[in-house]
Design brief:
88 residues; alpha+beta; 40% helix; 16% strand; elongated
Length: 88
């Protein structure tokens, strides 16, 4: 038997996505490691190399999501078999 549940409505998912795009563009994200920042800068992100913060425009995020070939898993495993999965 397989059980499924929908925790968020389509409208709620859209709102979360729009706010995530706003945060990435306005606040940015700190990037650790030396390879990520130059790649983001070359792709069009506003990068502060001193702080390690990249502000990623919505168009770049949308392009990356469209180019993904399936579900994206992000973050660390909190418990075995538990990850955050984003579906395009």
């Amino acid at each position: 038997m397989r059980l499924t549940a929908q925790l968020l409505s389509e409208e709620e998912k859209h709102l979360i996505h729009q706010q995530s795009l706003r945060i990435l563009a306005e606040v940015g994200v700190r990037v650790h490691g030396e390879k990520g920042l130059p790649l983001l800068a070359a792709a069009g992100a506003q990068v502060d190399f001193e702080t390690g913060i990249a502000r990623i425009p919505a168009e770049l995020v949308e392009y990356a999501l469209a180019a993904a070939r399936g579900p994206l898993s992000w973050g660390r495993v909190i418990r075995p078999l538990t990850t955050l999965c984003l579906l395009p």
